[in-house]
Specification:
The chain has 162 residues and is mostly beta strands. The chain has one helix and five strands, in the order E-E-E-H-E-E.
Length: 162
């Protein structure tokens, strides 16, 4: 047990005005603030859990989550997840990904939708699209040129540099 050093009276504490109601559907400037690799509930696949903070144009500070399937026994679910991952990487300017921490700090424009309440779950937000913010850098090429051709100018390509 830990003594708090003072008494907290519920009638003197401020009420939370933000709540958990979903934000309105629309395009928002989002920033990845956390990401991790998680096992699916069934234990037969894996997904990247991504936390995004809303930067604007409204609802700054609200938090949204999205899960991106990267390994799944259902080939269609895995294909969709990998398409989403590709869209996210292109939106934040990453050519490749080997660690979920590489996503942190990435900013993008996200198409946010509202998923209606369903049974025991209340209405919630989903991130349905990832788009680069105007002026964001394009990702570097992610694969070596076809054949044995050297990159233009003979320089070492960005993905080959250590």
């Amino acid at each position: 047990m830990a003594n708090l050093g003072e008494a907290f009276n519920v009638n003197e504490l401020p009420e939370d005005q933000g709540g958990f109601d979903p934000i309105p559907a629309g395009d928002y400037h989002l920033k990845v603030t956390d990401s991790s690799l998680e096992d699916t509930k069934a234990g037969t696949g894996q997904y990247i859990k991504v936390r995004c903070d809303v930067m604007g144009p409204s609802h700054q500070g609200r938090v949204l989550f999205t899960n991106i399937n990267i390994r799944n026994p259902n080939p269609k679910a895995e294909e969709i997840g990998r398409q989403q991952l590709g869209s996210l990487l292109r939106a934040i300017g990453l050519a490749s990904l080997t660690d979920t921490d590489q996503l942190i700090g990435g900013e993008f424009s996200g198409k946010v939708t509202v998923k209606p309440a369903d049974g025991q779950y209340s209405a919630s937000n989903e991130i349905k699209g990832f788009k680069a913010i105007s002026g964001s850098p394009a990702p570097a090429p992610s694969a070596a040129p076809a054949g044995n051709a050297a990159p233009a100018g003979g320089a070492t390509p960005p993905w080959a540099k250590k």
